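Sanity check

After download, print the first record. It should look like this:
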Amino acid sequence: MQNGFKIADRPIGRGHAPFIIAEMSGNHNQSLERALEIVEAAAKTGAHALKIQTYTPDTMTLDLDEREFRISDPKSLWAGTSLYKLYGEAYTPWEWHQPIFNRARELGIIAFSTPFDDTAVDFLETLDVPCYKIASFENTDIPLVRRVAATGKPLIISTGMATVAELDETVRAARDAGCQDLVLLKCTSTYPASAENTNILTIPHMRELFGCEVGLSDHTMGVGVSVASVALGATVIEKHFTLNRADGGVDSTFSMEPGEMAQLGLETERAWQALGHVGYGPTDAEKKSIQFRRSLYVVQDMKAGDVLTRENLRAIRPGLGLPPKYFEQVLGKAVKQDIQRGTALEWGYIG
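Expected structure tokens:
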């Protein structure tokens, strides 16, 4: 089993709060000014990292608007658009990468990218990115996986659509090519995704199967699924991020706004803190509360020789008397001395 590691100076692993990645994707809407505003907003939310994507339309597909090169599914967010046009709208110009990364560094947030071919990896290496991400749709592109792994930098791989056999091949390729620090992200490659199709019980199974850190690339709305994933061992959470969904953009529909991203960081850290360890008995914080348990109290004035009955003895709060489990045992026994109403019963009072 792989132990935790660091991306830049941020520890990754179950001994640390979840690593939160804000995915800009194409939400810059082809404005560098907006892209830089997204970086600033992500830093203010407390996200640990800002991720972009590195490709051009020509490195993704062909400039055709017919047959399989056109999105025909009427339920798709991008129905009626050619793949080439979609990637042209969504891609982040390569000359923007340096200013985006510089702004992130200034604000203390880690910036990295998802490359989609060898030219993107070569380019990102010139920018000294601290880690890489492989997208779900590229997780079976074994040559690309090997090329990225060969950089020796931490590698995050989304697992959307991949079978166990495909993931095994991908992980082996990454390891064989030199990847030491690996994170697999459980992912459902629908946009948006539904909670019902997320199957986060896969997270601990994936961790055990592949011996690496595991997280969630979450396309659902809200924070509930991400919070639940932390309870199952997720150490990395990735969510698409925008300034305002109403501004539009290729991924805006399923992206978080700044207030929601801040809430994601807060609630996933709370979930991680709540995991603690297996333990029973009072915690240090609970010890003062033990006095408010129920215990046996004399509830009527008694004289020496009087017998304890259900009328003069009750189990009430606080817990300074004998435990309630002795109630039946002491009934019918005489007391040795006068006892005032409201006295906690002790063995020394009983004859």
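If your output differs, re-run the checksum step. Summary of this record's structure: The radius of gyration is 30 Å.
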